[in-house]
Amino acid sequence: MARTRRPLIAGNWKMNGLRADAMALAKGVADGVKQAGWADREVLICPPATLVSASADATRGTGLLVGGQDCHAKASGAHTGEVSAEMLRDAGASHVIVGHSERRTDCGETDAIVRAKAEAAWRAGLLPIVCIGETLAEREAGRTLAVLETQLKGSVPAGATAATLVVAYEPVWAIGTGKTPTTPEVAAAHAHIRKVLGGLVADAAGVRLLYGGSVKGSNAAELLAAGDVDGALVGGASLKAEEFLAIAKAA
Questions:
Q1: Are the C-beta atoms of 96 and 85 separated by less than 8 Å?
Q2: One of 72, 100, 190, 192 is an active-site residue; which one?
């Protein structure tokens, strides 16, 4: 069956990158994307907030998209240290990651907070990538699908459509560990996510579902071929242009 959803390969740089090295990385990825001329897939980098503007300027016209890693729910105000979705948009971002497990764990973000951030992304004209995923303890207890369903129902705003929502499934225990679920396990999780979205989004069949968690060039093709996988949210491997481009090529 032909793929009907345009794949998205997103790189989450996390808290990595000073200007000189980051610009070299951004330009390296942008050059690869421009040379490949991919019209059938999208490639996105999400650098730290300090580098969003510079990355957008350095890659403009190449086809490489730039996004943020998080945003505040409010447009402005007394929120020291925070960055609003409007600020990201003003800096040149087109997407923003919300609800990453590291935000949920390190900052205590709840599903309600994630939902408010996704709504903020819409307000600013950004496309939110809503992250969900189970911990190792939850997986070992056989609660993976239940956890994903709870997080989806709590994190996806009312009125979401295939054009305004991307969902990323990242098993917490696989992030940065080198461990990944089997391809059938990924397919089962994504199939369940698609089913749950059917009760939340009118055009759920069109929502892109990304897999994240130790995605690299050597396993990308297999993971991306799993059922209902429409791309990847890449961590460590996105910090090397050649590796990240290899994942994008596998899409």
A1: yes
A2: 100
